[in-house]
Amino acid sequence: MKKLVLAAVAAVALAGCGGDDTAGNLTVEGNVRGLKKGVLYLQQVADTSLVTLDSVVVKGNGEFRLTSPVDGADIFYLYLDKADNNQLNDRIVFFAEPGTIRIDTEWDAFESEAAISGSAANEKFAEYRKIQSRYHVQQLELARAMGELQQPQDSAALDSLDRVGQRLTLRSYLYALNFALNNTDSHLAPFVAITEVSDANPKYLDSIYQALSPAVAESKYGKQLKELLSEQRSQAENPD
């Protein structure tokens, strides 16, 4: 019994030392205003499959609470099945660590009206997505403009738009690299490096990894970045 008490005290002490990637429970609570009936799911991608960590049936009141053990900071999803045969605007993506995060939103604007609080990592995630979404919108507008051009008369204009597209892609890529380099104390740094710029020059990825805080370096994505760098070094040493 004494050993169990000591173990519990040690776990609490570790949780208070700022290592927010320590395995523990993630609790998601909040309110879906206007929701009278539906099912909310806390989800995560595991081994390329979307799995449900917890769920709750909502009846007459939009207040909810979901909880599940998690391995550390990662991408999670709050999915609403409101039985309206509409697959749009029903899933909120967020980045969170073990602890409590709050999500308040509207049943008929579930994703677009979501207000998320309680996670410093998610604030960084929202900042990153906001900038990248601007590049994405510009790329969509550019693709539409290119599609409206008539060949071969507009070949010069098409070439010009293609160069604009290449510059947009480069700006988006450089933003991702700079974001990771400037946020090495956040779990978002290795996440962005792995998911957005894994094909970057190894020296840039190594600069990101070397600057990570110890806690972030030992996180899921920190370890994946280390493995990626190891693979790149191995390929460079053995090109055949």
From TrEMBL:
UniProt xrefs under InterPro entries: DUF4369
All copies of domain DUF4369, residue ranges: 27-125
Source domain of life: Bacteria
Record's protein name = DUF4369 domain-containing protein
Species for this entry: Robiginitalea biformata (strain ATCC BAA-864 / DSM 15991 / KCTC 12146 / HTCC2501)
